[in-house]
Amino acid sequence: MKRRKTTPSGVVEAPLDPRTQVRAKEEGLPSVNEGRLRTYEPGDNVRRFLGLLSSRITRSLAVSLTACVHCGLCAESCHYFLARPDDPTMTPVWKADQIRKIFKRHVDWTGRVAPWWVKAGGPRDDEDLNRLKNIVFGSCSACRRCTYNCPMGVDTGLLVRFTRGLLTELGIVPEGVFNVSRDQWETGNQMAVTETDYLETLEWMRDEVRTELGTDAIDIPVDRQGADILYTINPREIKFDPRSIAHAAKIFHTAGESWTLPNWGWDQTNFGLFSGDDKLGAYVARNVYEAAERLRTKRIVISECGHGYRSTRWEGYTWAGYDQKLPTESVVVTLKRYLEDGRIAVDRTRNTEPVTFHDSCNIARSGDLVEEPRDVLRRVCTDFREMFPNRRENFCCTGGGGLLSMAEYRPLRLEVAKIKADQLRATGAELVCTMCHNCVDGLNDVIKHYKLPMRVVQVLELVSNALVVPGTNERTKHRL
Amino acid sequence: MSDLLRILENEVQIAALVFLAVVYTTRLIWLFRFRTRKERTIAAGRASAGAGYSLMNVAMPWAMESTRKRPGLYAQFVFFHLGVATAITATFIIPYAPGLFKVRAVVFLFQIVIAAAFLVGLLRLVRRLTNPVLRQISSPDDYFSLILLVLWFAAGMLAVPNEPERTEWPLILFFGLTAFFLVYVPFSKICHYLYYPFTRFYLGRSLGHRGAFPPAGTKRPEARRAGENQA
Fold first, then answer.
1. Which residues of A touch B127 (CB under 8 A)?
2. What confidence tens digit (pLDDT) does each residue in A205-230 have?
3. Among partner residues A63, A314, A371, which is closest to B202 by beta-carbon distance?
């Protein structure tokens, strides 16, 4: 690191705005009344915070809190710091130190005896807790890139999520986080999609695919007992991008797959991952696992979603205290299997635009699906090119960690997205493919803000585009 | 040899080591009182392989971008910690195997390694004082620990010839600092080596279970998708 001048902190000073929380209480929402969704109450929040801190620390968290040697090597792994290199408060170590110093002051040894010696201290009041909120929610996307670059193995991403969870328990959260959590508690999905909307959208997409393929044999089944695959989706697919469901339906039909969507438990996304609320995480994940049990399916398949994959495949089982019984995989793994087994045929000359691949943090760093999407893309595109760095070293789309739902941090998010924009621009690709709906929105923001000549696609779309459907002469050029 | 030096090299060192061991044991008991979470998912990789890879990370500068892009800092890390190990070894050789330091080549080798660590210590101190990021995150303990180590290296260089008949003060300084270190270390950042195996183990085990550690290409392909295809 070169010698630099320090500048004022880039941490956004967003005040706590509990108006939505007050409204939720006034409306008597069940999740609030039953204490599942916590709201802000002025009072002894510091004492409650410290109580939660002591009771929730696990051993892996404790070692991450004690082991940091302040070497600063994590700094240049963070896109926030790379974009604001004069600002020490953008480094992972500084952010992690804000919870570490509280831990040292109240739980650890030296900090309790001689706090000034190890810079232990705080929090004193709700203002301090709100400042902590702005750090862990507003200046970190919990991408875990720093975790992979820490020589000591300190998991700063885990510390950030842990701290978010403590603040969520006190209602000291960005308004967007509260709203999405409320929707997921109240409706079982994070976009408050109603059952009617859900079913009607599926029927609409079924009709679209029927028209495209010229056959009524195709279906988008709901609650079909004994299907091989339980397909779970992101509510964004219902609300904003139903084409992705149509792509999946077309491919499943062509592969002769036995599949179904559930009527309840179809949302594989999980805001508990972002808010740090393990209870919400458990509730949403359990909905999916119980749907698979109820319908006696043999496998859970997760549509393209980074945090949904991580939550449903990995974290959800632990949150829910639910031993995994069924294979649980990303739809990209399913597609790869279809291609390898010859269950679907593709014509890669239908995708000739240069395409690059953006690895979702939650999939690559916390789930290790890095070769599978590349394998699929090389089969369905003629000009696939890597961006650098890639795989586990890829940079966040900058919309991770739930940041897309937090409007107050948007200017900083877009400023630090310069790193991602440079990375995208250098590929010269016209398409950036990602297997995450969150990344789609994050990348679209980056592309728009930095005026990049490219658009975002997903793996399903490219496979659907290249799909050769037997019995139809039509090259099923993407029309949906 | 004076009684002061004899006691410092023997009884004081042993007492300080016992103190260190007691505090470390207490520390580990404290650490093990924190709960762990049961893993409930079907593995996509091998947790043990991940933990092993993670623990060996220290010897693989190419494995992390942070060390790959900064080979100079990695080299500093190596020299610094070699110096620590060498100086610790010297604290045992001097009282218990003094004959080894009758060989000039051995003394010279020890002095070279410790001198390199001394220089790296100075570089680290300058970096910590001048780099705004490090300055912002550094605590008094960070500075004190580093300064103490630099002094200890300097004393070590002078002490390893082990010639109390000529002059005792380098040995008194070296062993005095060593004893102080043994008492101070468990309460300072220097005890990070106690936590290192744990942080790397837990991270490696978790990522190994998920198939992320070791990275693709260094593990058996059939183990990778086990959790997804063979429930």
1. 1
2. 999 999 999 999 999 999 999 999 99
3. A63
The answer to whether the CB atoms of B131 and A1 lie below 8 A apart is yes
> Of the residues A304, A323, A339, which one is the last residue of a structural domain?
A339
Same domain as A361, residue A310: no
Q: What is the mean pLDDT of residues A335-343?
A: 98
Are A70 and B204 in contact (CB < 8 Å)? no
Rounded Cα distance between B84 and B149, Å, is 8
Number of domains in chain A: 3
Contacts of A313 in chain B (CB under 8 A): 41, 228
- Any domain includes A424: yes
Nearest to A367 among B130, B140, B210 (CB): B210
Residue with tokens 């050789």: B93
Query: Is the distance from CB of A424 to CB of A452 less than 8 angstroms?
Result: yes
> Which residues have a Cβ under 8 Å from the Cβ of A294 and sit 6 or more positions away?
A262, A265
Distance of CA A240 to the CA centre of its chain: 17
Give the model confidence (pLDDT) of A53-77 as tens digits: 999 999 999 999 999 999 999 999 9
Distance CA A98, CA A77 (A): 19
Q: Assess contact for A20 and A28: CB atoms under 8 A.
A: no
Q: List chain A residues with CB under 8 Å of B129.
A: none
User: Residue A309 falls within a domain, yes or no?
Assistant: yes
Query: What is the pLDDT at residue A110?
Result: 85
Structural domain including A375 reads: 342-468
Q: Are residues A373 and A298 in the same domain?
A: no
